[in-house]
Amino acid sequence: MLLAGFQATVFGLISIALLALAVFTFVDAAFRREDAFRAADKQNKQFWLIILGIAVLVNLVVQMFLLQIIGLIATIIYIVDARPALKQVMGNGRDRRPRGGSSSDGPYGPFNGR
């Protein structure tokens, strides 16, 4: 009886984590530009929104562990394959420094060694 309660708690936490990951990837795909998907040569935006939306719905409504794992695979593929390619095409907006320069350049300018 105690083991059954523990399993329910563990599977409940795993389900919440899978739902959070699916929602994150869906929202991330929704905020990306359509032309970035084409430029990165990664399906199209509607494809990813449908696949990731189904993953969110499965985690919310159906909650069958096998279907949740299939949704997890889709979210992992988006995170490790499509998202980095989209970020490269769009630019992530964080690094404003121009590329190039000397190997002795530090974060605040050239390092003179004095």
Compute the separation of the termini in Å: 70 Å
Helix and strand string, N-terminal first?
A: HHHHEE
- Oligomer state of the chains in this structure: single chain
The largest pleated sheet is described as:
2 strands, antiparallel
Q: SS-based structural class?
A: mainly alpha
Number of helices: 4
Number of strands: 2
Strand order of the largest sheet: 1-2
Could you tell me the mean pLDDT? Answer: 84
Which percent band covers the strand fraction? under 5%
- Rg for CA atoms: 20 Å
Instruction: Specify the helix fraction band.
Output: over 70%
User: Unreliable stretches, pLDDT < 50, 5 or more residues?
Assistant: none
Task: Tell me the overall shape.
Answer: flat
Entry summary:
This protein has helices spanning 2-31, 34-39, 45-62, 65-90, and strands at residues 105-106, 109-110. It is mainly alpha-helical and 114 residues long. It has a two-stranded antiparallel ribbon with strand order 1-2.
Would you mind describing this structure in some detail?
The protein is mainly α and 114 residues long. 70% of the residues lie in helices and 4% in strands. It has a two-stranded antiparallel sheet with strand order 1-2. Helix 3 (45-62) runs antiparallel to helix 4 (65-90). The chain is flat and about 70 Å long. The mean pLDDT is 84.
SSE map:
Blueprint: H1 2-31, H2 34-39, H3 45-62, H4 65-90, E1 105-106, E2 109-110
Antiparallel strand pairs: 1-2
Helix pairs in contact: 1-3, 1-4, 3-4
